[in-house]
Amino acid sequence: MFLHSILKELNNYFILPDFWGLSDYASLLVHIIIEEEFIQEKKLAIIKNSEQEREFMNGLKSRVENINTTNIHNYETWEETVEKFTSIVEELWYKHARQVHITKHSKT
Q1: Does 43 lie in the same domain as 6?
Q2: What residues have CB less than 8 Å from 63, skipping those under 6 apart?
């Protein structure tokens, strides 16, 4: 087992007396403290069946229909098409999504 000398949490170890001996090798017992913590996160979300979801989907449908996909003959034109689609989705997402707070219970 290797212990990093900078981390005080992992550098509190001792050799069990029953394992002391003439050898350079011995079992180590390491005490690691695990603390409980509540983490607040903010995320963007669109609530299912909401007005924002309807507006997002309608906007997506109407704008994606206007993307020209007839000239995708190589990687470059395919990549341009994907970028157009991605920018449309991002723009509509940030327009219609709302911020929600999520509390997570975590152990560190």
Answers
A1: no
A2: 88, 92
Q: With cut-offs at 50, 70 and 90, classify the pLDDT of residue 41.
A: confident
Whole-number Å distance between alpha carbons of 96 and 54:
9
3-state secondary structure of 10: helix
Q: Do residues 97 and 36 touch, judged by C-beta distance below 8 A?
A: no
pTM greater than 0.90: no
Tokens of 97: 């999504």
Full domain range(s) for residue 97: 37-107
pLDDT given for residue 79 in this prediction: 93
Task: Classify residue 59 as left (phi > 0), alpha (psi -120 to 50) or beta.
Answer: alpha
Residues 62 and 98 in one domain: yes
Task: Identify whether the C-beta of residue 16 lies closer than 8 Å to the C-beta of residue 81.
Answer: no
